[in-house]
Design a protein that fits this description.
- The structure holds 2 protein chains of 2 kinds.
- In chain A, the strands form 2 sheets. In chain A, strands 3-5-4 form a 3-stranded antiparallel β-sheet. In chain A, strands 1-2 form a two-stranded antiparallel sheet.
- In chain A, strand 4 and strand 5 form a beta hairpin.
- Chain A is mainly alpha-helical.
- Chain A contains 13 helices and 5 strands.
- In chain B, the strands form 3 sheets. Chain B has a 3-stranded antiparallel β-sheet with strand order 5-7-6.
- The chains are: A mainly alpha, B mainly alpha.
- At the A-B interface, strand 2, helix 6, helix 8, helix 9 and helix 10 of A face helix 2, strand 1, strand 2, strand 3 and helix 8 of B.
Chain lengths: ~300, ~525
């Protein structure tokens, strides 16, 4: 009977006092917690057993270490273990749980344009869900997006780039023999936003089709929750998505960008304008886009 | 040819002279810019011409339809139907196109008219392509004198998400420019020009032209509304994406002035036209009915213009409150102590300006880490067996039943039969050393079959200029030939020269040798 006793909350204190005394039953519990983490839509608030094991993780350091070890062995990374988000695990780079672009969209493996658009859709959904740096940092923030909203948001950004290059008198039409050198915004802008199909479904190759696929996939991953059908589908974010974007995707993409030699400078405030490309210098913390006097630059805003 | 050569040489030598640094008015980027702009404008008309070229490929008799006309009319309809918030309905456009198409071919069934309308509309959207757009290729000289071929992508009618999840049609700026013909001009100045023109025309009583000018004015109004709609959309997403300090207030002031101005102007025009309409009815001109009808139509158009201006004005007045509400929502939210990554400013925005090859590395990285995990499905053998033995579920949507094709055997209308060809070939299979006169051959042919001489004569005439080179290359050993030695043909059915018909032997061995040499 004694080896089963460790399962009960009463003897939890004894187990933490003697960390070496973890039994196979504890290992089973640890693996179970990881298994709960693999079901991203499951929340501890809805499942008593999940909530119990989760509490054990937070209270017993030894149990927590075993659970982490189980996750690592399976090729998983533990992002957070909390009552609000549950056991948040994500796939390590070459784990069996990782999502591959080729499995995600068949066309994407052969067509580099489609590959880019699918990746961009995921980035745009995240950027729209967390429009300001504060939103991404604030644990209590819940982002709301619509499929059509994401599309018009990216199109607006593309249009700004188009206008700017038109002002500079650039000819942005790409060379016929070097399609890879075409500017990214052009690839998005020229893809149609939607299209009529014979069976009244969304046209898969259109930009709203690609974004629609991305949000549906993210919903399956437990990152978004569908709240309505307006504007091509409305969604709100979950705590898991915020963690995933903040701790994994955002930094990975940023370091890739830095490797390309592009150093985006942020003043730490929520400038949704691309920094350094707009002549409008904004006063920090001001609600209205006041012009800042060129003489005095606030320390937080000094670029580069 | 002699005229074209110098032109070519100028083009090809220009880059080399500019590289050597000699002063030369090379066709640089500045000179090419206007050309590129005109080439792009020209490209926008290509899909319309293309329709008339490709209508021949449609199954059926579609030559009688003027496809370019239908296409332009479709672009007209979509532009006029485009309202402030939505686009035009696909079915409505088809329905409105039908009267014009029916007028082009009154005798044809209405199903065919419907098919033409849909075909034209689908081609203007370019349904078959991935982007649902068009691409034209043109060339320019770069700053270093290098000739670069470029792709120009454009759309004429685009599909946008409509209210209630539907799909609406909007005409693009390119299409409006092609349609109105005001390529590369300032919207405001074109508006003023149209106004002046309208006033003059109304004064002179030339109502047909007045109507055209009024319609042009309406296109301009739609363009204004479109610009404002985009700005407000952007503001709802992010107040700071739009310059609300100078650009937008300026635009709103300008647009309000414009609306007030237009309103006054068009009311004046309306009064003017009504007077013209009533005057013509009193004076009893010969062309009165037509004049009155046209004036009435013009009144409708100007009324519609006024309605659109009023709509634009109410949106313009709403713009300020929209901005303030969005600003409250977006800017006055309590700031948090710590800050994170600016996904738009630091990732998305710099990315969009990069070439797609480089940008893809970043999106790939985001995708790999941002999609979470998928538990791979593993199959148990028992389940697999069950799955494989399950009979397939009957499919409900198999589509309409294919009609049995009604095949009609084409009648054999050959002039000569196979037997006659065999007989003629046999007759003309002459020994190499014994050529014969055509007259003799004809007489011999006539003895077996009265029709045969025609075939023999035909083959003999054909042999008058034998394709020696082809036969040589194909390795033929002999070739039928006919030579005119000046003797006249005496025959009751045929006239001309009495040809000497014979068989020439080709040097097969030498040919083979020559061939193997050239191949080696």
């Amino acid at each position: 009977m004694s080896e089963y006793g460790t399962e009960s909350p009463q003897s939890a204190g004894a187990a933490s006092a003697a960390p070496s005394a973890l039994s196979p039953a504890d290992a089973a519990d640890a693996a179970k917690l990881v298994a709960f983490g693999l079901q991203p839509k499951l929340l501890p608030a809805r499942d008593a057993e999940y909530a119990d094991i989760l509490r054990r993780y937070r209270e017993e350091p030894a149990f927590a270490r075993v659970t982490d070890a189980v996750a690592t062995g399976l090729g998983l990374i533990v992002l957070e273990v909390s009552q609000r988000a549950g056991m948040v695990v994500t796939a390590a780079e070459d784990s069996v749980f990782a999502v591959r672009m080729g499995d995600y969209a068949r066309r994407a493996s052969t067509d580099s344009t489609d590959r880019f658009l699918h990746g961009l859709a995921h980035l745009a959904v995240a950027a729209m869900a967390f429009p300001r740096p504060e939103d991404l940092a604030d644990d209590g923030y819940i982002g709301r997006i619509t499929v059509n909203g994401v599309d018009s948001f990216v199109r607006q950004a593309c249009r700004r780039l188009e206008e700017r290059s038109a002002e500079q008198g650039e000819n942005t039409d790409p060379g016929s023999d070097a399609p890879g050198l075409e500017a990214a915004w052009r690839v998005y802008a020229r893809r149609s936003a939607t299209g009529a199909t014979k069976d009244a479904r969304r046209l898969a190759g259109s930009t709203t089709g690609i974004i629609g696929k991305a949000v549906a996939f993210l919903t399956d991953s437990g990152f978004l929750q569908r709240t309505g059908d307006d504007s091509g589908g409305t969604y709100r974010t979950t705590a898991r998505y915020q963690l995933q974007v903040r701790d994994m995707a955002g930094s990975a993409a940023l370091s890739e960008l830095l490797e390309l030699g592009i150093v985006p400078v942020s003043d730490g405030t929520g400038s949704l304008l691309p920094p350094g490309v707009d002549e409008l210098e904004l006063v920090e913390g001001a609600g209205l886009p006041f012009h800042q006097d060129s003489g005095q630059a606030l320390p937080a805003q000094r670029h580069g | 040819m002699s005229q074209r050569a110098p032109n070519l040489s100028v083009v090809t030598t220009a880059p080399s002279t500019s590289r050597t640094g000699r002063p030369h008015p090379a066709p640089g980027p500045a000179a090419d810019e206007g050309l590129a702009r005109r080439l792009r404008a020209l490209a926008c008309t290509a899909p319309l011409h293309d329709l008339d070229v490709r209508k021949a490929n449609l199954a059926g008799e579609f030559g009688k339809y003027a496809m370019a006309e239908v296409a332009l009319s479709a672009i007209d309809l979509v532009t006029l139907q485009m309202d402030f918030d939505t686009g035009a309905d696909h079915e409505e456009i088809v329905a409105r196109l039908l009267p014009r198409i029916a007028a082009q071919a009154p005798g044809s069934p209405s199903a065919e008219h419907d098919r033409v309308a849909r075909w034209v509309l689908e081609n203007l959207i370019n349904v078959g392509s991935v982007d649902r757009g068009f691409r034209a290729v043109y060339g320019t000289f770069g700053p270093d004198g290098q000739y670069v071929r470029r792709d120009y992508d454009f759309k004429l009618i685009e599909e946008v998400p409509g209210p209630g999840g539907g799909v609406c049609l909007r005409t693009t700026d390119e299409a409006v420019n092609v349609l109105v013909g005001a390529l590369d001009t300032d919207v405001t100045s074109a508006q003023i020009a149209a106004e002046v023109k309208l006033e003059v025309l109304v004064n002179r009583g030339r109502l047909a032209d007045a109507q055209l000018a009024a319609e042009q004015a309406r296109y301009r109004t739609v363009q204004y509304a479109e610009t404002l709609r985009r700005t407000l959309d952007a503001t709802r997403r992010n107040v700071r994406a739009v310059d609300w300090l100078e650009t937008v207030p300026d635009m709103i002031t300008e647009a309000l002035d414009h609306v007030a101005d237009r309103y006054r102007h068009e009311n004046a025009i309306l009064t003017n036209i009504r007077r013209v309409r009533d005057d013509t009815s009193h004076q009893g001109h010969q062309d009165t009915p037509q004049h009155r009808a046209r004036a009435a139509e013009l009144v409708d158009i100007v009324k519609d213009c006024i309605r659109r201006h009023t709509q634009l004005q109410s949106r313009l007045l709403d713009a300020g409150p929209v901005f303030r509400a969005e600003q409250d929502r977006q800017a006055f939210a309590p700031p948090t102590a710590h800050s994170g990554l600016d996904l738009y400013g630091q990732l998305l925005a710099p990315l969009l300006g990069e070439p797609v090859e480089r940008a893809q590395r970043v999106t790939d990285a985001f995708f790999a880490r941002g999609t979470g995990l998928r538990t791979p499905s593993s199959v148990r053998l028992g389940d697999l067996t069950d799955l494989l033995f399950t009979p397939p579920a009957p499919r409900e949507h198999l589509g309409a039943q294919m009609p049995e094709p009604d095949l009609i055997a084409t009648p054999d209308d050959s002039r000569f039969s196979e037997e006659q060809l065999a007989a003629a070939t046999e007759l003309l299979d002459l020994p190499v050393d014994a050529p014969r006169r055509l007259s003799g051959l004809l007489a011999e042919a006539r003895r077996s079959d009265p029709e045969l001489p025609y075939l023999v004569a035909l083959m003999a005439v054909h042999a008058a200029s034998p394709p020696v080179g082809t036969a040589y290359r194909q390795g033929e050993e002999s070739l039928l030939f006919a030579v005119d030695d000046g003797t006249e043909l005496q025959d009751r059915e045929f006239g001309g020269a009495d040809l000497v018909v014979g068989t020439a032997r080709l040097a097969a061995a030498q040919m083979a040798a020559a061939r193997s040499e050239t191949q080696g």
